[in-house]
């Protein structure tokens, strides 16, 4: 694999190799010296045309923990504002010796264009493109789900898969690259996915996707999901009204205090509550839910560093499978 563009490109063994390698990288994160020399002499460019907190900082932390040099580029304040194209921007940064380009772009397909254009020779990692895909988010989400499943079963995460895991993905599916990447990856790993949304926030053609569709969050909760993943309402991508009011959306599709209490009443003590961030507290999720013991929001952020270390390591070191952290360090 030369690039990481879409979870659709990942076979089950590719995905498990990344998750297993991420376990080893997470172990490095527990050490006093959280650094490996694996990518010493390599350069990773973070090329962000859209805002980001988690993805950009965790790719930077991941590259630095692997001893790579990191160049951070943000379109804001750059020559993009003078009209410089994606091609010229990418080639300029590649001329500084980039081995990997991590790109976030508002246009769906921009990372694939960069990877397939021949403009640059570096590995391309998609850090979120338009409403299309966000593969490392899906991988860190799968990593988080797998750890919870393994802990519940009292077995190691490595080697555990997600077969039969019931996952409800709730909210603004229409604009969500996180939902798409998660759906394809979870399907590959054997999970059963239900998308829950108002009809206006489901994309045309979603009825042919490999999942169940529900318009009723309470019905989806009554089905006993192992995981409830709440999605952010992406107001910046909404150019018309998709629901009557914030109050109406929150009441019908938000995860509030009442639904948090209902998980106990439904006999679901182990159901976890995920959110990729950033959260609209009080809209798709209440503060009580976001900060509850069921919430994995900050755990997802920590796991993101390990998963991005694994992705960079596997793409740049030429390894087809995981090695132990000890082997990597030697
Ligand atoms: N989850 C996610 O992509 O967050 P950022 O936009 O902060 O990177």
TrEMBL record:
Please report the stretch or stretches of sequence annotated as the Aspartate/ornithine carbamoyltransferase carbamoyl-P binding domain: 2-146
Q: Which residues bind L-aspartate?
A: 82, 177, 232
Residue ranges occupied by any Aspartate/ornithine carbamoyltransferase Asp/Orn-binding domain in the UniProt entry:
164-314
Which GO CC terms are listed, alphabetically? cytosol
List UniProt keywords, sorted A-Z. Answer: Pyrimidine biosynthesis, Transferase
- Binding-site residues for carbamoyl phosphate, renumbered to this chain: 54-55, 104, 134, 137, 277-278
Q: Where is the signal peptide?
A: none
GO process annotations (BP): 'de novo' pyrimidine nucleobase biosynthetic process; 'de novo' UMP biosynthetic process; amino acid metabolic process
Reactions it catalyzes: carbamoyl phosphate + L-aspartate = N-carbamoyl-L-aspartate + phosphate + H(+)
Gene Ontology molecular-function annotations: amino acid binding; aspartate carbamoyltransferase activity
What Pfam family does this protein match (any one)? OTCace
Q: Which InterPro entries match?
A: Asp/Orn_carbamoyltranf_P-bd (IPR006132), Asp/Orn_carbamoylTrfase (IPR006130), Asp/Orn_carbamoylTrfase_sf (IPR036901), Asp_carbamoyltransf (IPR002082), Asp_carbamoyltransf_Asp/Orn-bd (IPR006131)
EC numbers: 2.1.3.2
Protein's pathway: Pyrimidine metabolism; UMP biosynthesis via de novo pathway; (S)-dihydroorotate from bicarbonate: step 2/3
Quaternary structure and partners: Heterododecamer (2C3:3R2) of six catalytic PyrB chains organized as two trimers (C3), and six regulatory PyrI chains organized as three dimers (R2).
> To which protein family does this belong?
Belongs to the aspartate/ornithine carbamoyltransferase superfamily. ATCase family.
What's this chain's function?
Catalyzes the condensation of carbamoyl phosphate and aspartate to form carbamoyl aspartate and inorganic phosphate, the committed step in the de novo pyrimidine nucleotide biosynthesis pathway.
- What is the protein's given name? Aspartate carbamoyltransferase
